[in-house]
Amino acid sequence: MSFFDLFRRKERKDPPRGAGPRRPPPRATKRRVTKIEREVLEMVFESAKSSHPQEFGAVLRAEGDTITEILVVPTIQGDAHAIMSIYQLPIDPTVAGTVHSHPSPVPLPSHADEQLFRNFGHTHIIVAHPYNLRTWRAYDHDAQPITLEVV
Ligand code: ZN
C-alpha cells in the first residue's frame, strides 16, 4: 500500500472541515497552526524511537489551528528527506507540513531540511535523539523557529 492510498482512504473517511463545492479553497500556504495535540507528539516520539538510529518521517495534518494527526509513510526507513521530496503534490488544506527525526541530539534544520520546509507545507517539526519534550522544535516554511502549544 502506498502513502497515497493511505491518504485517500483517510480523506474519504474524514473530509476536510469546510470542504464544499461553493467555498473557495483555504490558503494552504498561510500558517495558522499554533497547537499540537500531546498524543500526536507522543506518537512522534515513539515512532522516532522505533526507527532509531534511522530517520523517521511523516506528514502532519491539522484541523483548524491544531495538529491532530501524523500520516506515516510505511516504507520510510533511513531517508526521510528523499522520501518527503516526492510530496510536492497539490496541497491538501489539512496538510500542515512534515515531521522527521534526527538520530543526533541536534533538532536544527539542515540545508536539505530548509529546502523541504520551503517546498512543502507551512509548519514543520524536527525531533532529535532521545526524542522527548525537550528535544523537539517547530519551524515555519522559512525554517524560522516557531512555538507550538502542546494541548
Ligand atoms: Zn533533518
In N-to-C order, the SSE pattern is: HEHEEHEHEEEE
Instruction: Give me the secondary-structure category.
Output: alpha/beta
Please report the number of helical segments. 4
The hetero molecules present are: zinc ion
Fraction of helical residues: 25-40%
Number of strands: 8
Instruction: Provide the residue-averaged pLDDT.
Output: 78
Q: What general outline do the C-alpha atoms trace?
A: globular
Rg: 14 Å
**Physical arrangement of strands within the biggest beta sheet:** 7-6-5-4-2-3-1-8
Poorly predicted segments: 1-15, 24-28
* Major beta-sheet overview: 8 strands, mixed
The first-to-last residue Cα distance is 32 Å
Q: Would you write up a description of this structure?
A:
Strand 4, helix 4 (111-119) and strand 5 form a beta-alpha-beta unit. 26% of the residues lie in helices and 26% in strands. The chain has 151 residues and is an alpha/beta fold. It is built from four helices and eight strands; from the N terminus they run H-E-H-E-E-H-E-H-E-E-E-E. The termini are far apart. The chain has an eight-stranded mixed sheet with strand order 7-6-5-4-2-3-1-8. The structure holds zinc ion.
Write the layout of secondary structure elements.
Blueprint: H1 3-13, E1 35-36, H2 38-51, E2 57-63, E3 66-72, H3 80-84, E4 95-102, H4 111-119, E5 123-128, E6 136-140, E7 145-146, E8 149-150
Zinc ion (ZN) binds next to strand 4.
